[in-house]
Amino acid sequence: MLKAPSAAFLCVYLLAAVLNAIILYALVRQPKKQTLDKPVIGLIFVCLLWSLKRVVLYSTLLATDEAQMTVVATLASLMVFAIMLLNAALAAERYFVLVPEWKAVFYWILWAFSVSVGIAVICVFVTASSDDMIHPAKVLQFKIWAALAATACTLTISCCCFFYASAYSFTVRNLSRNVHILKDLVVSEGDEDSHSQNDLIALHSVRIKLERNLLVQCLWLSSSVFVCYLPFIVYILVNAAGLPPDGDAVFSVPKNSVLFVVISGLVALDPILTPCVVVFFKQDILSAVVWKRK
């Protein structure tokens, strides 16, 4: 019999699996794919795998021996790290659509880092089994695992902040320059009647609205990493710092406590929050998922 938190998590992951499957189907069926669709497809696909894995875990609870729990923990870590790094790739792609310089270099670095993290995670769980399907049971491997999680989260947050801020700044500069060009054109032609002045005021209002919408979009697109994963990363880092050099690696807060349930619940919300935010700001996908009719 599932306990209340487990039953709630099962419902959340079921909803996430259905939602991500629908969005992924709409993305794949699109006749013309844009540049931003590649990281979005990867992100939605990993969210779908993550949701399905958690559904199987919470519905059947098959992982009963140490080997099975270690495999589940390894896959969970790999998928969470993949979601983080794909969020970084999505932020970078939004910027590189505007400014393509250094795109190849960035993706080579990101791929090298991703492969290194994946190999390190596998090595951690090969050398230390898991007894809770979350983290390695030995202290040294737990601290390495926590450091890897913190590094991936820090990289993702840094990329989101840098690339979204850069994309916002680049777009604002271009909007301002275009407004000034049109204003100078009106003045140079001597067309300073009230109609032209009203057009300039309207254009300025549109520019402010576009800037505000772009800022809100950038904040929302980076919100899932901050809201869903940062509390958990801080939590495991605090635990890693307080562990003795010998003994077993255990969380200082029991897994049935309110704090742990809330932190786990935030992680569970990401497979729903991330695709919803991404799709909301991509009207072509939104129309395909919600409004399209055969």
User: What integer is the average pLDDT?
Assistant: 75
Q: State the total count of DSSP E strands.
A: 0
User: Which series of helices and strands comes N to C?
Assistant: HHHHHHHHH
Q: In angstroms, what separates the terminal alpha carbons?
A: 43 Å
β-sheet strand percentage: under 5%
Instruction: Give the helix tally.
Output: 9
Q: State the helical fraction.
A: over 70%
Inertia-based shape: globular
Low-confidence stretches: none
Characterize the main sheet: none
Supply Rg: 23 Å
Please identify the structural class as seen in this structure.
mainly alpha
Structure description:
The chain is globular, with a radius of gyration of 23 Å. By secondary structure, the chain is mainly α. Helix 1 (4-29) packs parallel to helix 8 and helix 3 (66-98) packs parallel to helix 5 (139-188). Helices cover 81% and strands 0% of the residues. The protein is built from 9 helices and no strands. The protein has helices at 4-29, 37-60, 66-98, 103-127, 139-188, 194-221, 223-242, 258-280, 283-291. The chain starts with a helix and ends with a helix. The model has no long low-confidence stretch (mean pLDDT 75).
